[in-house]
Amino acid sequence: MENKETNRKIFLNSAEWLGRDEAYACRPFIRAGFSNTEEILELRVFDMLNILGIDRIMAEEMMYALYRFFNENRQADDALYNGTIDQYFDFTAWRAENPDVPEVKVKDIVLADGMNFDALTWLFNRVVRKFWKSPEYDSRNYRYWGYRDLVQQKEGELTK
Predict the structure, then answer these.
(1) pLDDT number for residue 58
(2) How many CA atoms lie within 13 A of 125 on its CB side?
(3) How confident is the model at residue 136 (pLDDT cuts 50, 70, 90)?
(4) Whole-prediction pTM value?
(5) Upper half-sphere CA count for residue 82 (Cβ side, 13 Å)
(6) Which of 152, 136, 63, 79 shows the shortest CA–CA distance to 102?
């Protein structure tokens, strides 16, 4: 829990990150111009799914990698997997805190209190379904070429 609150800026090419990124989920994010975990955590999930070269599977793998990195104690995940406990994550409270699904950020899912692997999967899939039904989704075009393009476009929207 302390790690979740104190240091969320870990460089994606650091030994600390690469030593625990089992699926090499960071590779497409590095190619897209991301340099650290803070940039990804502050990203809206809808924007992450709209970056060229990052599809739904890559986004999901990064969510899992971030979850594994910031939640070192995963005994509850093992217990859920083995069927020794039932799902305990409070989905109702999470939805009350995050009523506007298009504005949900990666950190809202990965760093939520009481998060577990199954809840992360369920919430991410819910957001993805909303994304596919939203006007932000275009099956033929990505909105952003990479992270820098996303930042430039967002800054342009703020100045208008």
Answers:
(1) 94
(2) 6
(3) very high
(4) 0.85
(5) 7
(6) 136
* Single-letter code of the amino acid located at 110: V
Instruction: State both tokens at 44.
Output: 């809206």
Residue type at position 65: A
Collapsing DSSP states into helix, strand and coil, what is residue 11?
strand
Asked whether the beta carbons of 41 and 66 are under 8 A apart, the reply is: yes
Distance of CA 74 to the CA centre of its chain: 18
Cα dihedral 127, 80, 76, 60 sign: negative
Query: Measured between alpha carbons, how far is 143 from 41 in angstroms, rounded to an integer?
Result: 19
Confidence of residue 75 (pLDDT cuts 50, 70, 90): confident
65 and 26 Cβ atoms separated by less than 8 Å: yes
Q: Residue 125 CB: number of other CB atoms within 10 A?
A: 12
**Strands (E) located in 7-123:** none
pLDDT above 90: residue 81:
no
* Neighbour-count burial of 153, counting CB atoms closer than 10 A to its CB (0-12 exposed, 13-18 middle, 19+ buried): middle
For residue 57, the SS3 value is helix
- For CA atoms 70, 121, 76, 19, give the dihedral sign: negative
* Residue 129 parent element (H or E): helix 117-133
